[in-house]
């Protein structure tokens, strides 16, 4: 299951893209491609375990 | 390798790391991501003097891909656009299972070279690219089977021990070719002293390539030139041309390091010379 803070957007206010890119609503920023694998729980990755941004925001909420 | 090689004006191999897999167009919109963009970028860096292109694969939205088919698309595009550049695939992949890490080696034809990460590397706050000895050995075994030259990536001094360990465990074709990497985090701290120490700690006869991240790219390339090494530049490792100014292209970074090498008296290796230096067939 993908991170609940993950969205795909074709623009971020500064730039627009041909393909929608990963955007983190917790950090209000585009996501680096490598980090997007964590957001999507790809390979052996898990956003609840591996993403410090998710963990910090989940604790606050 | 050393200062004597500089004095002898031995040719310097320029590798262009075109795309990478950590950051993408969100960091610099000029960074090539698609096979067509990477193919066009390869043509421009080849014209600028690069003889090796270091390649990662990405999905259409810029996210990482390790699939053989995606590397094949990229290689096909690079070959369409270039004359004779040496293709080097990355086998790096934080968080990816070991079997996935082998997939970049399985294109047809295989790449002439592939990276081989020599040990652990921390990423963000909670990830480590483990690069166990078992994985290093299995990747090397497949490279041998497919006739691929390994580029041994040493992220820090401890990884130079790992290079020696690999030489103890397995037969590596001469010359051994290692990339010395300097930057933040797990990487060797980017100081001239650490650079000289790394060069001194290389196994006898090993050739080295020099990689500085971010603003260290140009000064470390210059040190590589001066101490008889080879150099890697490109948007994978550094998205800026100078402080506050994003690089227009990979080619601009290659053009600059070619000028530096020429001013310092080392010619840039042609692709044929690079193949001879690296022992490629």
**H/E element sequence of chain B:** HEHEEEHEHEEEHEHEHEHEEEHH
Q: Which range best describes the helical content of chain B: under 10%, 10-25%, 25-40%, 40-55%, 55-70% or over 70%?
A: 25-40%
Mean pLDDT of chain A: 94
Strand content of chain B: 15-25%
Which overall shape of chain B is indicated by the principal axes computed on the Cα atoms?
A: globular
Which second-level CATH architecture of chain B applies?
Alpha-Beta Barrel
The helicity of chain A comes to 25-40%
CATH superfamily of chain B: Aldolase class I
Biggest interface:
A-B, 27 and 25 residues
Global Rg of chain B: 17 Å
How is this structure best summarized?
The complex is a heterodimer of chains A (61) and B (281). Chain A is of the alpha+beta class.
Written overview of the protein:
The complex is a heterodimer of chains A (61) and B (281). Chain A has 61 residues and is of the alpha+beta class. Chain A has one domain. Chain A is 33% helix and 28% strand. Chain A has three helices and three strands, in the order βββααα. Chain A has a three-stranded antiparallel β-sheet. In chain A, a hairpin with a 4-residue loop joins strand 2 and strand 3 (29-30). The longest helix of chain A is centred in the last third of the chain and has 9 residues, at 52-60. The model of chain A has no long low-confidence stretch (mean pLDDT 94). By secondary structure, chain B is of the alpha/beta class. Chain B has a single domain, classed as TIM Barrel. Chain B is built from ten helices and 14 strands. Chain B has helices at 3-7, 35-48, 68-81, 98-101, 133-146, 158-169, 192-200, 217-226, 250-264, 271-278; strands spanning 14-17, 52-55, 57-58, 64-65, 86-89, 113-117, 121-123, 127-129, 149-154, 177-182, 207-212, 230-233, 240-242, 245-246. In chain B, the strands form four sheets. An eight-stranded parallel β-barrel of chain B has the order 1-2-5-6-9-10-11-12, surrounded by eight helices. In chain B, strands 3-4 form a two-stranded antiparallel ribbon. In chain B, helix 4 (98-101) links the parallel strand 5 and strand 6 (113-117). The longest helix of chain B has 15 residues, at 250-264. Chain B is globular. The mean pLDDT of chain B is 97. Chain B: Keywords: Metal-binding, Transferase, Zinc. Chain B: GO terms for molecular function: 3-keto-5-aminohexanoate cleavage activity; metal ion binding.
């Amino acid at each position: 299951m993908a991170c609940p803070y993950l969205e795909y957007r074709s623009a971020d206010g500064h730039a627009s893209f041909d393909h929608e890119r990963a955007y983190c609503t917790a950090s209000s920023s585009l996501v680096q491609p490598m980090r997007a694998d964590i957001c999507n729980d790809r390979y052996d990755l898990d956003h609840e375990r591996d993403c410090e941004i998710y963990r910090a925001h989940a604790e606050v909420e | 390798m050393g200062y004597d090689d500089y004095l002898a004006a031995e040719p310097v191999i320029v590798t262009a790391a075109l795309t990478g897999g950590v950051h993408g167009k969100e960091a610099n919109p000029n960074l090539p991501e698609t096979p067509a963009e990477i193919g066009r970028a390869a043509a421009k860096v080849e014209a600028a003097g690069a003889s090796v292109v270091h390649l990662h694969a990405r999905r259409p939205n810029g996210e990482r891909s390790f699939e053989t088919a995606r590397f094949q698309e990229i290689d096909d595009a690079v070959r369409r656009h270039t004359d004779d550049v040496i293709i080097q695939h990355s086998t790096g992949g934080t968080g990816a299972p070991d079997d996935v890490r082998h997939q970049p080696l399985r294109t047809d034809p295989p790449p002439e070279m592939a990276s081989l990460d020599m040990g652990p590397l921390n990423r963000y706050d909670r990830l480590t690219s483990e690069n166990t000895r078992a994985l290093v050995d299995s990747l090397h075994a497949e490279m041998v089977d497919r006739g691929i030259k390994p580029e041994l990536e040493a992220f820090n001094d401890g990884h130079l021990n790992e290079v020696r360990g690999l030489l103890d465990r397995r037969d590596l074709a001469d010359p051994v070719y290692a990339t010395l990497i300097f930057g933040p985090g797990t990487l060797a701290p980017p100081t001239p002293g650490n650079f000289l120490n790394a060069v001194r700690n290389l196994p006898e006869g090993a050739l080295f390539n020099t990689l500085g991240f971010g603003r260290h790219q140009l000064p470390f390339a210059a040190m590589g030139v001066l101490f008889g090494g080879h150099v890697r530049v490109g948007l994978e490792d550094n998205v800026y041309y100078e402080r506050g100014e994003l690089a227009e292209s990979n080619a601009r970074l290659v053009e600059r390091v070619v000028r530096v090498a020429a001013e310092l008296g080392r010619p840039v290796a042609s692709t044929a010379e690079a193949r001879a230096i690296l022992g490629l067939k």
